[in-house]
Amino acid sequence: MARYVVDVMPKPEILDPQGKAVLGALPRLGFAGVVEVRQGKRFEVEIEGDATPESLAEVEQMAQTLLSNPVIEDFEVRTA
After folding, report:
1. Residue 43 and residue 5: Cα distance in Å, rounded?
2. Confidence category of residue 62, pLDDT binned at 50, 70, 90
3. Which CATH number fits domain 2-79: 1.10.10.60, 3.30.1280.10, 3.30.70.260, 3.40.50.300?
4. Rounded to the nearest 5°, which phi and psi values hold at 28?
């Protein structure tokens, strides 16, 4: 069975209010020195069969059409 990980993150120019909320909470919890936090999503996709360039391309198509919003998010697919 082939396993792929899809990481989805807001594009750098997109505001990230969840990341900002975490950034604001960290100093109150005693964590100093953090200058930026961005929050994203992670998907783990299992495909029948072995990892192949074709199955990788299929998962990339999934990420492009369903798992991310390409207008405001970037994604990266890798074999797990």
Report:
1. 6
2. very high
3. 3.30.1280.10
4. -65, -20
